[in-house]
Amino acid sequence: MASTERELADVDRLHGLLGLPPSFGNEVRVLRNGDEIFPAMLDAIRSATDTVDFVTFVYWSGDIAIEFAETLGSAARRGVRVRALLDAVGARKIDPALITQMNDAGCDVRWFRPFFEKNKVPKINEANRRTHRKILVCDNSIGFCGGVGVAAEWTGDARNENEWRDTHLSISGPAVAGLLGAFLDNWADQHEDGFDPRTERDVDFRERGSTPMFVVRGSAETGASDVWRMIMTLVSIAEKRLRIATAYFNPDRYVIDELIAAVDRGVHVTLLVPGEHHDKRFVQITGEEAYQELLDAGVDIRTYEVSMMHAKVMTVDGRIATVGSTNFNQRSMQHDEEANVVIVDRDVVEVLDRHLDDDLTKSIELDPTRWADRGLPQKVAERVTTVVEKWL
Predict the structure, then answer these.
(1) H or E segment and range at residue 18
(2) H or E stretch at 273
(3) Phi and psi at residue 159, in whole multiples of 5°?
(4) pTM higher than 0.90, yes or no?
């Protein structure tokens, strides 16, 4: 379906505020949870005839970790150029045998910002600056991005606490160039032989659909990043409804003030965060320090109680959405390398909102009065975490 005048106006507005050019003619498929996400990614690798480029923060263990290694290796053995970049912190729990298996098959597997390299001084200054991007690009014609990592935790369909809830996107069309650029940005970061323009294949720029979108990259830097500006922009343009699902919530003062300002101008703001199945309780407490102020301002805060809520999704007025690796926290907005897409397409946003509707039925709404009566140990813990909140 062709973009409406309102959607084109939204595209122009975002173009000016984000400072990024939009791409048109994209096809976007929303993938929910491992049962949909992993088969789509693996099928794309199996169908690849030329290139596979993959960067991820998490590569841990389980049958899915083995299957990815086997599938990537099989692609390399049939002559596909396979490049895999694993974050040295996030993927540290991977079985070393899988690295060996992939390399022996012909994959080029590398670490992003390792602490220690042979005959080199430890890179302590880079220890806190990770790539949190989760991107797969096959044949420069189909790309994937979102929140899922390669590990047993993401398998299944979020039916219980052992199956994490997440969202990923499959994208075909000109926007794939942005995803490839995000991969190459990390691939070349510390490897002098990591980027030779003469060896890079052309991107397939043929239009595949009708969705306008932006690819936004966040980099570890001092001050405001592009993803911080993206979040501030999307919150500020909301007129009626703003929905945010995030695994880790710990925004800075500016973002908190913008959320409150949205409520003050009549926007219904819903924040969906993990509940009792949060995988990092200390980080959860850090975000809870801001709950009282937001609840008192009128923000609707819900905790997802089926499993770990790991999705990073924001929808605005049923017209605009962003999905990617960026959490609603200071680590994503300042310290990590991230990649998100911003979509201007009512049909795609409707699917995301429908999924969020389902998530909300499995959540608990926080009551401002009851939250104010939380125990003293909880309040003390919240205050303690403020010492390190900017790193979380």
Answers:
(1) helix 5-18
(2) strand 268-274
(3) -90, -20
(4) yes
